[in-house]
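Q: What residues go here?
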């Protein structure tokens, strides 16, 4: 058997969005802007910077327009705005974000609690969001929430995900993401879900979003790099959050994302080609995680900052 080609992994930093939305302390706009500046200085080149949601539902994400207005436009940095419906997309279209990422849960139970609507209605909202993005000259991606398991339905069968995938793929998206929103996924599911879109020309790019709630997030990330990625020019995108902060306010017991610095250490040591972040010097990320920990009054879940990089980076 021939070995798989070296994967190219595009790391997507989600700390300014998913990393903050479930924290008890709400950070001011200027603090969130500084977080993004620190991440860019640490080498991050693609990130979810804001979420266009109702501030009464997710106060941690209030002021999305103000955050983006305070950031310089850089050709080498792509900023993503997460949206939950067409109205959020319309807000995002008026800003400098480069990409709109629409969330579509694959279960009615999660869709109703997270976005106030069942899957069928959210597919309609996604179609509208993609049209808004296109009219504004922005990229459009869709994340399928609870694709690995739902806190309200329980086990989610691949066939159920496949029905939503087929509808979303027809929207003319630039990227499709499978999200393990509550951290219940295992590597065999990574392969099974990827198989749904392998060779499907309607899905130009593939992305995964993992949480480490049950300590399987990094195993799932590794599994994603071992997929047959020939349909995607050998590339796969992986979400991660600086420090491992994160969680969903509408998903019980959902803890942090896989940590950007821990993921980059894994990718570098296993020989993957990394894009979207600097895997050679992680001090900027571990320092940013400590800085963020102080402002959130919350300990850093990631491990690299405690153990230190290996091999140690010469100062």
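A:
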């Amino acid at each position: 058997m021939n070995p798989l080609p070296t994967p190219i992994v595009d790391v997507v930093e989600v700390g300014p969005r998913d990393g903050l939305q479930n924290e008890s302390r709400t950070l001011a706009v200027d603090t969130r802007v500084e977080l993004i500046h620190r991440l860019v200085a640490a080498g991050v080149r693609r990130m979810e910077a804001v979420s266009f949601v109702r501030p009464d539902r997710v106060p941690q994400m209030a002021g999305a327009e103000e955050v983006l207005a305070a950031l310089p436009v850089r050709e080498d940095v792509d900023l993503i705005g997460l949206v939950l419906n067409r109205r959020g997309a319309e807000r995002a279209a008026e800003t400098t974000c480069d990409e709109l990422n629409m969330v579509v849960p694959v279960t009615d139970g999660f869709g109703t609690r997270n976005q106030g609507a069942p899957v069928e209605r959210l597919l309609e909202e996604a179609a509208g969001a993609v049209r808004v993005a296109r009219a504004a000259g922005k990229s459009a991606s869709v994340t399928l929430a609870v694709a690995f398991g739902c806190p309200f339905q329980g086990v989610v069968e691949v066939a159920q995900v496949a029905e939503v995938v087929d509808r979303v793929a027809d929207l003319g998206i630039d990227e499709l993401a499978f999200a393990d929103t509550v951290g219940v996924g295992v590597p065999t599911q990574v392969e099974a879900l990827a198989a749904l879109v392998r060779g499907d020309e309607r899905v130009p790019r593939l992305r995964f979003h993992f949480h480490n709630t049950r300590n399987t997030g990094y195993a799932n990330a590794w599994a994603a790099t071992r997929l047959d990625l020939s349909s995607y020019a050998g590339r796969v995108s992986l979400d991660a959050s600086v420090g491992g902060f994160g969680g969903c306010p509408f998903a019980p017991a959902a803890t942090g994302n896989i940590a950007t610095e821990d993921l980059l250490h894994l990718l570098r040591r296993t020989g993957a080609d990394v894009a979207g972040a600097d895997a050679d010097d992680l001090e900027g990320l571990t320092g940013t995680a400590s800085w963020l920990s102080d402002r959130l009054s919350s300990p850093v879940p990631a491990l690299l900052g405690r153990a230190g990089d290996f091999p140690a980076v010469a100062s």
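A: Context that may help when evaluating the design: Residues 111 and 121 are 9 Å apart (CA to CA). The chain is about 35% helix and 15% strand.
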